[in-house]
Amino acid sequence: MKQVYFYSQLLFSCVIFIWSNKADAQEKMKYLDAAQSDPVKMGWMVGSPPPQDRIPRFDDGSFFQFPALRWSVAHMRQFMPTVNVSRGLGASASFATNIKSNIDKVQFVPLGETKAITWEESLQKVYVDGVIVMHHGKIVYEKYFGALKVDGQHAAMSVTKSFTGTLGIMLAKEGLIDTTKTVSHYIPELENSAFGDATVRQVMDMTTALQFSEDYADPNAEIWKFSAAGNPLPKPKDYDGPKTYYEYLPTIKKNGVHGESFGYKTVNSDVLGWIIARVTGKTIAEVLSEKIWRKLGTEQDAYYSVDAIGTPFAGGGLNFGLRDMARFGQLILNNGKAGKEQIIPKSAIDDIRKGGSKKAFAKAGYTLLQGWSYRDMWWITNNDHGAFCARGVHGQVIYIDPKADMVIVRFASNPIAGNGANDPYSLPAYDAVAKFLLSSK
Amino acid sequence: MKQVYFYSQLLFSCVIFIWSNKADAQEKMKYLDAAQSDPVKMGWMVGSPPPQDRIPRFDDGSFFQFPALRWSVAHMRQFMPTVNVSRGLGASASFATNIKSNIDKVQFVPLGETKAITWEESLQKVYVDGVIVMHHGKIVYEKYFGALKVDGQHAAMSVTKSFTGTLGIMLAKEGLIDTTKTVSHYIPELENSAFGDATVRQVMDMTTALQFSEDYADPNAEIWKFSAAGNPLPKPKDYDGPKTYYEYLPTIKKNGVHGESFGYKTVNSDVLGWIIARVTGKTIAEVLSEKIWRKLGTEQDAYYSVDAIGTPFAGGGLNFGLRDMARFGQLILNNGKAGKEQIIPKSAIDDIRKGGSKKAFAKAGYTLLQGWSYRDMWWITNNDHGAFCARGVHGQVIYIDPKADMVIVRFASNPIAGNGANDPYSLPAYDAVAKFLLSSK
């Protein structure tokens, strides 16, 4: 039982929680390609009952193994308990469209390669499930593949963190959170943990110094304890560890000096989620609903996965529709304004866009992300377009390019979790589309 | 582990799956009243984390114990995996309203009592969470209590069955199902079970003769095996029974002669759900979405609870918003038409309204439901208003009174599961409101 239990943790955690900067694009060679692994063609969950080998399962972790993963990311609710982020009952905001099918022909040279490929070809390289490009506030490109439909929802993975960070800086600008205060000021339960003397700002920029290993080869790595704690299934009888996110977070020890190095660790987002819950007296699902989702003209409810006591997974548990992700991206690009309403204070967006410490970021050693920084749980490229983004494993992204007045949102199910596998086909693709749009009418 | 597991089954099954006709109104005396048990006032799931004694849990069954039950029925998704019934992305159909607050003062004498009470007082007697009265297609009364909000969803319990039955008769009228054929014609896997030689019609009217005990005092009763099979949690290591609904249903044995007696047994609805899935090649969630939910102008997605392989619980797993339940009830009253669209063939509604065998129904011995019958998984009163209804444990109802051109929909969280506890305060209340509306302009 224990073995099965932790096995399920292994698979679940590996892919949901973690940004791996060691991912090797070569690894992809051993996987079916996008067309071969199309989840509809593969017939996952078709039949009453479906064939045994076409039923992804949560308890043994098979739901998150490629290629079943490609079906599961569009159906996360069927595997686990969740909490709604209500859009309310109002009308959705309609999109203006100005489809530019020529985008498919835009060419670029993938990082580390020499031969140009087209945007259209790149979609298959990163196993895209859905992608929208917005330009001047209009949809200029929109496609769905495999198991994702326009009215479906998809796992946002670590794009969730940027929502948590956005809510955090919103509450700071509203005066509910003082980012210079220590975490323990808001969450006394964390006083004796690594977070006790970290500032909220350090948590928001992930410059906390944590003893938190994500080495999957090490059975004692903290990541196992974190994911076991957050798993909503009943714990095995002999399990004596933390049983919820809130029980786990106080156990994290300090390792080093806060504020010096960027360290991308999911638990920071969950600590910020806890602070948001504490200062508002509401769950982060309710806060997201009230402050953004109900005001934005979204067309579908969003949802979070939850732990055994219903705490939303602020570090990676959010799911929503692609068009609603586009609405959110456009809101950020528009400095927090949608229509005539200032939903997010402009000062909060300014805070995100000014970026974090490049020096601290450089210490993390992302070879493909030279010169980037991290602020309010957003990735800041510091390129000459002022682009910044939200990123999640398996290829989820919100990419905002202010100079090109462009937003790209994408759901994907790349067999490789780490964005190192997506970036060579994504970062230059975004630039090429931005240039194409800047040069088109 | 096993004990805990089956304990959770016990609580979960007792209240979700079963209509108890033995419920005793006196039993209610030992419970907190509606005001005392208000789930918002009790503070369930408030705090980060909430207090230990304010966290309803799925694995130990506490989520479905009164008074936590009152919070849980409005948050079922937080406890278990579910599948969406998409409304699509279109605009919702707006309601005309003509609020008649005088309904609160309508008086009636509860069954078995001598003193009249008002409609308003009756709401507390049955622990109402939300209620809408429609008259001439307009909302004339709408109230929410406790944990249910206008944009929330609530468990429909066995009201689910009437959706399953409605889809069944729709598919029959479309020629996809022949109700005179045996179940085994559609589901060969059921050939050696009680259902093998039962007709689809007998399943739809629950006149199958099944060895299916719902005696909770008997640890060998079939209800335990059914609920253990359908529980989405991983099975205990030593569990060797059926692991899904589709594995369980073929094990049901025959006991008697089909077609003679009405026997309200949830498994009939799950067999009909299986037939619907088989003939359409889709899950019942998809069929409900395509045939009704997307066409009706609903304002929220609905959802089903599912078993370990994602099969929706066709006998009791549906959840949706109160206004959407009103839309559905109005659709049935309008002979399947919403606006200008004939969503359900009128012949299907005619089939429901003509009712089932009164003789077969009488054998079941419901003392409060003299002269009623059961058809297409709807309860037919055969009263002089031609009223018929969908009913679920703990007080869920869609009550349709054609003569009064009235629909009443209600979500509730009565501590007593069986409708025997609700009927004395409900059936005469519906009649009194119908008379009031008939006499008002």
Question: Secondary structure elements and their pairing?
Answer:
The structure is a homodimer of 441-residue chains.
Chain A: H1 2-16, H2 39-42, H3 68-72, E1 82-85, E2 107-108, E3 117-118, H4 119-125, E4 128-135, E5 138-144, E6 154-155, H5 159-173, H6 183-186, H7 200-204, E7 210-211, H8 222-230, H9 245-248, E8 253-254, H10 267-280, H11 284-293, E9 302-305, E10 318-320, H12 322-333, E11 337-338, E12 341-342, H13 346-353, H14 358-362, E13 373-375, E14 378-380, E15 388-392, E16 396-401, E17 406-412, H15 423-439
> Which of globular, elongated, flat, extended, rod-shaped describes the shape of chain A?
globular
The amount of helix of chain A comes to 25-40%
Question: How are strands sequenced across the largest beta sheet of chain A?
Answer: 5-4-17-16-15-14-13
Taking the sheet with the most strands of chain A, its summary is: 7 strands, antiparallel
Distance between the termini of chain A: 61 Å
Question: Which structural category do the helix and sheet elements of chain A fall into?
Answer: alpha+beta
The mean pLDDT of chain A is 93
Number of strand segments of chain A: 17
Task: State Rg of chain A.
Answer: 21 Å
Strand content of chain A: 5-15%
Assembly type: homodimer
Most extensive interface, chain pair and sizes: A-B, 50 and 50 residues
Structure annotation, total helices of chain A: 15
> Are there runs of chain A of 5+ residues with pLDDT below 50, and where?
1-26
